[in-house]
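In this supplementary section we document a worked example of the pipeline. Step one takes a protein sequence of length 155 as its only input; no multiple sequence alignment statistics are reported here. Step two produces a three-dimensional model, which step three serialises into structure tokens for compact storage. The input and output of this example are shown verbatim.
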Amino acid sequence: MGLNDHRRTVVRVVVYSLALMLVLVLFRLRRALTPEYGLRVTQVQEAKQLGAMLAGEGEKLVLVEVTLVLRPGVPQPLSPALFALMDTEGQEYRPEPLSPLFSDSLFGGQDQMLEGTLVFRLPQERRGQNLSFHPEVNGDASNPESKDTGSEGGP
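The serialised model returned by step three reads:
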């Protein structure tokens, strides 16, 4: 009888261990499939001035309002190097370092939602077409996300 009890105990331990490993694998898989960020463009407009920022001769400021959901792993505070606005000719532009979104990202933790404005300087005749976000997660430029700025006839 003692041998059967021992076998039952061993079987229980093995079953519990396998169940625990399955839960851990599923948790890690879910975590791996969850994006580190979400980006949504809420509004795009042109301006000649935003606060102290002035468009130069032959330039315009393109103001892109975004909602950005950040999860652990996305570097904080955010920097202009993480964003690019591509125009209809394929030229990329980085946002101004004084864009309001960057000062907003100084405050708050990792798992957060930010709403703010990115400011880009474009030549007057160019139109912004696509905003991309390239978070460097652990030194790896993974999962770049692009959003159409919805500016066919706009900025």
